[in-house]
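re: ur question from yesterday

yeah so i grabbed the chain u mentioned. its 703 aa long if i counted rite. heres the sequnce exactly as i have it in my notes:
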Amino acid sequence: MMKLVIAEKPSVGLALAKALGVTGRKKGYIEGDEYIVSWCVGHLMRFAKADSYDQKYKEWNIDDLPIIPENWIFDIAPDKNEQFSILRSLMNDCRVTEVINACDAGREGELIFRLVYNKAGCQKPIKRLWISSMEEKAILDGFADLKDGKDYDKLYNSALCRAKADWIVGINATRLFSRLYNRALNVGRVQTPTLAMICERENEIANFKKKKYFNVHIKESGIDAVKERINSHKDAEKIRCDCDGKQAHVYSVKTERKVVNPPKLYDLTTLQRDANRLYGFTAQQTLDYTQSLYEMKLCTYPRTDSCFLTEDMKSTAETLADMILFKFPHFMNADLKCDVKKVLDNKKVTDHTAIIPTLEIENTDIMSLPQGEYKILCLIANRMLCAITEPYIYETVTAEIGCGDYSFTAKGRKSIKNGFKDIDTAFRVFQQCSDDNEKEDITLSVSEGQTLNNIVAEITEHYTQAPKHYTEDTLLSAMERAGTDKMTEAVEHTGIGTPSTRAAIIEKLVKFGFIKRKKRNIVITDRGTDLISVIPEIIKSPEMTADWENTLSLVAQGRFTPQQFMADIGKLTSDIVDAAKSSVDESKVSQQTIGSEIVGICPRCGKNVIITHNAYACEDGECGFVIWKNNRFFESSRKKLTKEIVEILLKSGKVAINGLYSPKARRNYDAVVCLDDTGEYVNFKLKFKPRKVKGEGRINAAK
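ran it thru and got these structure tokens back, copy pasting raw so excuse formatting
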């Protein structure tokens, strides 16, 4: 009798097989005496397109909305049919008595497995592997403690509800507003509220009018006291004249000791924020690097919203702290007083613990890692040490100084015990990265009742500052807080999206040309502003989206039924469609083709391919067909991917181009570039000495 183990990706499947001693490599799986290990290659199954329910949905007609399926249809991603056939065959193999879900231990991993399992028509018992580390010991411990698959039914329901809600809102809102406004407007349940926050910030910046104000300083013997924010230069000048050369008195000196506790361990969002601020990494890059470390067995599971470890990890955490001090050169001389109890709390660990390195670092040449992975591992290791050491203690001194009829304030700051700051400073010096939020000590030697003679008074000129553009650091924070000003327990886990999806949301907004990166800032494009200007508040409200995320969490806990959630989503969608229909004179709705500038017909779905900010993309957000303007092949060939080339490729599937450059051969060549669409990615293939094909164009493309 055999047990079939299904992982999410081949690399994870190989690691599981190695830990289990399964070595018989076959096509699409590995077989041993007790286990067969295979994999899904990511999302094998996907929601079928709208026209799978009714052919009339091929046309984007307002009268057909809302589209809310009763019986959902799923199909197989075009380039993954072979692997699905292998999995279905293995599930139906008479030798297999049990199927083990070893997909990523989270909401999406549960969905990926269940959709494949259901599509294959399998009814064999399910066991669940739930691990937070790819270390061999963690894998073997997980297999020794497999859970019943039924224990995760509620998590699957939550994942399925989330996916269905995204489909329903996305399909209906995109078609509705694209038709009403005669433009391709890609609307999403989560991406649109994120875009709305960015748009609001850009409006605040655009409408900001700076105002001049003045500060008056009185100085003597290293003391600099200030009276702030005087609106009139005339008033400031009067204060200066009244105080200059006069005597001042120290009325009061207040000394206050403050304690800054060590930072918590990393969850994914906090790690992404720090990596963006210190290294300039995008959220997606940080997730990719951390996922790579996880698959190398060097860190725990990345897609987590917890900042704590379980109490049974006390010994592991202590061993790990000693190992980090030994493995990372900038920590070797650190005087560290560890207290791992600070990061242990069973009540604050849900599906996964915080992100920490694993004991596997002992056997790894850290310095040989790729730069991205190395920097992220250093960041995680640094946070681990900071979190378990002593607080940072400093003292503030505030002096109130009177001069004539005016009151001035002088402030000082002095470190008492650096605590975790010493670890963090050593890390930043070694990594050559700085933190703009760091505050330096300011010496203030003054005593109550002291008299300051022969004061020098000065005026400094200042301007109020506009709000800052979002960076990925600050945008992730805003998404986590659902746009509120403060982070409270109530919103900590009910923001826009989840830790594992926020990076993808940002990337999707960039892909569709709604936002763009300008150095480290994220700014909205005209296309994004146009979208937000026509979308009703209920779709772009961050608070509404956060409420949905909270409800999905309740579904996962069994405290809210999937049926009620989907009923609410259906009603909301119907209300949006009805309101939009009644508010727009349909006789004025253009019957022309939807979209921006059109360059051809999509080879996947037959709709229009339009020009976006950074791509030539299908107007149908479901389709996913896209040719990026900064295409790697054309850049390496030293050719510009022009609109003319794309038009010919879409018309005939190929284009003859003279003067392509080969980096390997270091010479130019002529070839026919053929469109090679896998159904998920758009690639290019080359043909040499081509025969003349009717309708085929030849381009001597501009460099």
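noticed a couple things. The domain at 212-261+395-420+441-463 is CATH 2.70.20.10 (Topoisomerase I; domain 3). also The radius of gyration is 30 Å.
anyway ttyl
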